[in-house]
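Team,

Forwarding the record for the chain on the shared tracking sheet. I've put the sequence and predicted structure together so nobody has to dig through attachments.
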Amino acid sequence: MFRVFCINATFKFLKLVLRNPTRLTLLPLILLAACASHKKLPVEITPPVSPPISTPEVVIPALPFAVSKWEMLPDWASLDLQKTWQTFGKGCGALKNKANWKVVCAKTNDLAQPDNVALRAFFEENFTPYQVFNSDGTSQGLITGYYEPKLYGSRERTDKFCYPLYGVPEDLLTIELSEVYPELKNMRLRGRLQGKKVVPYFNRADIDNSKAALQGRELFWVDNAVELFFLQIQGSGRIELPDGSLMKVGYADQNGHPYTSIGKKLVEMGGLKLEEASMQGIKKWAEKNPDKLNALLEKNASYVFFRELPNDLSAPLGALGVPLTEEYSIAVDTRTIPLGSPVFLATTFPDTAQPLNRLMMAQDVGGAIRGSVRADFFWGFGEQAGIQAGKMKQKGELWVLFPKGAEPNLTP
């Protein structure tokens, strides 16, 4: 599910740099602005901001972390850590050979059926909590949700099942920038060849209008265009076939175009009020406006391609490469929070003031998950998980637990 993509303008910048290597120092800044990691993407609405009347004060960005104390973590002394421990164990399967994690992951073998007291002692003895802050020094950010949906489909096209779920196109190119410039690790370009030029890959409208060479790349055909769209946003799901069997699919690649929130577009167009622009609200709008649906979906040029996954997987694979754990795995922005880290989340349940304080694991990433105090909460599989994920737009705070000896350098 690890996914990265760059906007079309990046191609032009790359060509300029390759022609003039002295401009290399500008490339990381350009790409940081142009590149984003991609996965299942929540419906995220940001109200329009009125332009300032006067020149605002210059805000000096704060450091993203500050050393904290365990007693600052809400409900830390009374939390049930059993499910957290299981999720942490899965993560250690991917982290145990990394320098910062060898010692702490090895210690997990010393705990046989630990109770909450022992688990609290384990984390307190082996980790140091750091609170996460935004660049303006504030501590609150947006917490959204995602899930694994179920769609109805077939391996053959029929009158009912007529919307294709594609595998990766044969002509989709992935250019690993780090092979030329090591400082651009995990940054990639997507494109295709046009003669001797690399150009951006086809956008959603092109693909839906059969301009891309995708015939024969159909994995399944499903019965609902909106559900297929949201499957691409979530990044993984299950397809129920006519015989009742369930097939699992997961993210394989992406066309390289940036994600655009159709919920936000609907609000701007006057189709929905801001408070209605949840996943459920968009689906209701689509049912009432079938003639306008394609034009709306095409406003999001991003398009996701899938692969069929083994049926014995317990859950979708996150960017860390381990199955996600429902209600204990989150997606984060790895520019601030290291993948695999324990992250204490202090927020509220969707549409309520009921506290949701929990030690989570940062096991995934997402194109819409940008910013220091920003997380996407994995709710699991099915309709109920989808309801929770679709309405989750809560304020929250984050604390990252760093292994002792691997704490961040807070020197400005």
